[in-house]
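Predict both folds.
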Amino acid sequence: IKFVNASIYDIPKKENSYDLILCNEVLEHLNDPNMALNEIFRVSKKYVLVSTPNEPFFRIANILRLKYLKNLGNPPEHLNKWTKNGIIKLLSNYGVLINVKTSTIWNFVLIKKI
């Protein structure tokens, strides 16, 4: 497997370069998730797998762990909060949702590029 380390906003690859792109625990950290998703789907040939924290349960779990209490369980580097419905709504603009799984604190979405 060949991995590429690059800015998510400017991936140095041609369109349709990869069969599968993983975007795990990234979107909640970005100022512009749509710009990143545009780039991810540009270089994806077929599939994208995205995972995000499932809010508000992620923050509740942090409070129970006594983490980030002054931020009500929200890590300061998390700029976006994704509920299951919120991430589905966002990602449905980029392709066909093949599979959506949610655990208590995580969302996982497999999207097929159209």
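Second protein follows, with its predicted structure tokens after the sequence.
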Amino acid sequence: MNPVQVIAIEGLPLIDKGDNLAQLICEAAEKQHTPIQNGDIFVATHVAVSKAEGNVVDLDKVIPSKRAKEIAEKTGKDPALVEVILRESREIVRVRDGVLITESRQGFVCANSGVDRSNIRGERNVAPLPRDPDLSARRIRHGIKKLTGRDVAVIVSDTHGRPFRMGEVNVAVGVSGLKPIRDRR
């Protein structure tokens, strides 16, 4: 039997544009005496990745379209936020009071195209999903390997609610170093 151990990397700062996530992860792991090993799998939230990549939008600089204003009226959401959500979506799946379910540009059906307000400096700033989450995961993975010599995997995650369920799940929106889908053909 192969044991699985989950270890939180603590002591990471709020991430800013240009921060090197691989370096921050390596430094924090070293500081807490949990050295990085071959085969480790790191999970980074999309918000941290988007912020490091500079993919943060100031809603005060967004001019809502007519469509965004109409949807904002139906949902009770900020029209500028709705505009960002629309820009990040392929298709609207559902609109109702307080709810805007879309298919994101990356193909995920989720609330608000994955646009998130949590853990972001500034009252009016939001973080969309990374433009290419698999590439983001690859960059972090290669950065960790360069710094430590260890071969690890990296998952970029987002929290999704589930219809008709209480609670949320984390979904891998980007992966590097492991196969996320098992071929059962």
